[in-house]
Amino acid sequence: MSSEINQVPTGIEELDRILNGGFPRGSITLIAGGPGTGKTLTALQFLYNGAVKFSERGVLIIFNENAQTLKQFTKTMGWDFDRLEEENMIKILDFIVVERSSLESMLDMIFERALAFSPQRLVIDSLTALTMSLERRDEIRVVLSIMHRLLRKLGCTSIVISETPWGVESLGSGVEEFVVDGIIKLELLPVKGELKRRLAVLKMRGVAHEMKFYQYSIVPKEGIVITPYPEVF
Ligand SMILES: Nc1ncnc2c1ncn2[C@@H]1O[C@H](COP(=O)(O)OP(=O)(O)OP(=O)(O)O)[C@@H](O)[C@H]1O
Ligand SMILES: [Mg+2]
Asked: Is 40 near ligand 1, meaning CB less than 6 Å away?
């Protein structure tokens, strides 16, 4: 049964089923997880599928990360981001995080550049890096509400990434979790001497999504592959 709202498929088959169709159009979803859980990969797959399967342009905003290394990673998944950039379907904007006094003007500049590309999909990797220079919750709240307003103005469907330290239960700073429309949590859990990957959709406003845990793998040439979470765990 599909929802009545307009939804944007991620193109990750099982995730779209879990989401009963995809992200609501124009929504902001937080992907939260520890190091190496596959946050960046999931977001890249959303952009790649958007461009290749649904002809939707995507912008990837990265901080303190090298675009070339990222593209190497996408190549191992069989996704040619160089070609998509040439075809004007994907735009990668990389920034160095600035101190907090210039954060607001940097956000304006980022969104002006994104707006010029008129994307349907957008990813910020990561919100944690963007708000790194902020210590107080009220400062984080101000920057997040600016970001939120700008994303709404752009009108695209967005993923923002939150990096959570290993072993910590939180999803973010305690602010963004409530600002975003959806949350997907990615985890690495020790199970019988092995690390297993586990995923759950914690919220998605307006969507009757599944509430189960799922196992997932990172598979070369495929990306994120989601399977049922074994009961024996
Ligand atoms: N070719 C590959 N085949 C299978 N798994 C891979 C491959 N390349 C990377 N991985 C897995 O993907 C992980 C990295 O995924 P990704 O960069 O999306 O994680 P992340 O959550 O964004 O990490 P970080 O918090 O460091 O940014 C690696 O730690 C590794 O476990
Ligand atoms: Mg990452």
From this structure: yes
Q: Which residues span the domain enclosing 96?
A: 7-228
SS3 for 77? coil
Q: Give the list of residues 6+ apart from residue 78 with CB closer than 8 angstroms, or none.
A: 220, 221, 222
- Per residue in 24-40, pLDDT (tens digit) is 999 999 999 999 999 99
Residue 233 lies in a domain: no
pLDDT of residue 80: 97
Question: What's the total number of domains in the chain?
Answer: 1
pLDDT at 180 over 70: yes
Residue 233: band (very low, low, confident or very high) from pLDDT cuts 50, 70, 90: low
Nearest CA to ligand 1 atom 13: 36
H or E element that contains 103 = helix 103-117
The response to whether residue 26 sits with its C-beta less than 6 Å from ligand 1 reads no
